[in-house]
Amino acid sequence: MTKNMEHQFSMLVREIRKEYVGNGPKEITTKFNGAWAISEMRGNLTNVEKFMIHSEQGKQMVHETRTRFVKEIYKKPEVLLKFENLMGAKVLRLFSDINIEEDIAMTVFVFDQPIEGK
Question: What are the DSSP calls for 47-78, one per residue?
Fold first, then answer.
């Protein structure tokens, strides 16, 4: 049952990223651990962003913009509600970062109760 929920969670992450960013990651893997949902996303950058990261200034700009933008998306009550309805738990906080060189992003959702085993 957990694998199915992890897959559903990953699909929800993809749907939200597509809706707000314009494209979703090529690969998403989500694992539940206690009250945490940890989503690893590969293949996040657009062609324009890939071009921009050829300079240090471009890397910094893409990293800062992506990180801030993703955090803003997850502040929206309607977005949080989708995750809370799926998991039957309230999202308390979120941590997000991206490694520009490897094109890997990680988002950790912290819920108010254990979600592992759901």
Answer: HHHHHHTTSHHHHHHHHHHHHHHHHHHTTSHH
pTM to 2 decimal places = 0.89
- Cα 86 to chain center, whole Å? 15
**Residues 87, 118 contacting (CB under 8 angstroms):** yes
Domain, as residue range, for 36? 2-111
Dist. CA 68–CA 63, nearest whole Å: 8
CB atoms closer than 10 angstroms to residue 8: 13
DSSP 118: -
- Cβ 92 vs Cβ 109: under 8 Å: no
Rounded to an integer, the average pLDDT of 83-99 is 96
- Number of structural domains the chain divides into: 1
